[in-house]
Amino acid sequence: MSIINYLDSIKARDPAAKSRLEVLLLYPGVHALGLHRFSHWLWRMGLRFLPRFISQTGRFLTGIEIHPGAKIGKYFFMDHGMGIVIGETAEIGDNVTMYHGVTLGGTTYNPKRVAKRHPTIESNVTIGAGAQILGGIIVGRGAKIGANAVVVKDVSPGASVVGIPAKPVKATMETDIAAFLSAGGRKEDLPPDLVVQLESERADKRPDADRSKKRSAK
Ligand SMILES: CC(C)(COP(=O)(O)OP(=O)(O)OC[C@H]1O[C@@H](n2cnc3c(N)ncnc32)[C@H](O)[C@@H]1OP(=O)(O)O)[C@@H](O)C(=O)NCCC(=O)NCCS
Predict the structure, then answer these.
(1) Which of 27, 40, 119, 186 is deepest in the core (most CB within 10 A)?
(2) How sure is the predictor about 218, in pLDDT bands with cuts at 50, 70 and 90?
(3) Exposure string (b/e) for 186-213, b if CB count within 10 Å is 16 or more?
(4) Which CA distances in Å does 52 have to 39, 98, 115?
(5) 160: Cβ below 6 Å to ligand 1?
(6) Ligand 1 contact, 169 CB (< 6 A)
């Protein structure tokens, strides 16, 4: 990955970006990532204080805090950047786009020091402004996380999730499941929480649903 390709990948994702020079000089996400590449290299060499110092300097300059231990793939774009926090054991794939105010964090104080406390974000994921993604969960390839969503469970590849706690956007979920089944996928292979949610929504939509609910309430 050359720096030119990286700057072009940002231009392609941000209609406001007018030139490579502008992206290079004026985008805090680019500066924070550059400092992270250096601090991560030092971290992998076994140093601890210096990489943390560089990471905190990056935070002071850009408002973006990336722990030196976090593993980040190619073409990572933090748009606006301010308020982003990325934890020590977070892993980020290629071509991930993230807006300001996102946290890839742990769920709680963890006295047992579980090894993987922060999320794994697979390639081509987009994470909306203010989204909080918490715990050692996996956000599947190509998923979209809505602005201000709080995600505490795995997200299926390609799904769009919104809200607190985050749930799949209905239209996307139904379309995705229909496509999966018609391509020969088995219902047993779908994430169980998706199936339960879909079936309960279908049950609610049945014309007799209101009547049977009223009957059972009596
Ligand atoms: C989640 C998101 C990717 C969904 O996009 P989409 O797949 O095109 O979905 P739609 O816009 O058709 O919305 C689908 C439903 O989700 C709701 N929805 C969309 N985004 C939402 C959000 N962030 N929180 C809660 N509900 C949301 C819509 O109101 C709609 O509800 P309805 O079906 O009851 O009408 C997008 O809305 C989003 O939040 N993107 C982040 C953008 C961002 O952070 N921009 C910052 C720029 S500085």
Answers:
(1) 119
(2) very low
(3) eeeebbeebeeebeeeeeeeeeeeeeee
(4) 7, 22, 19
(5) yes
(6) yes
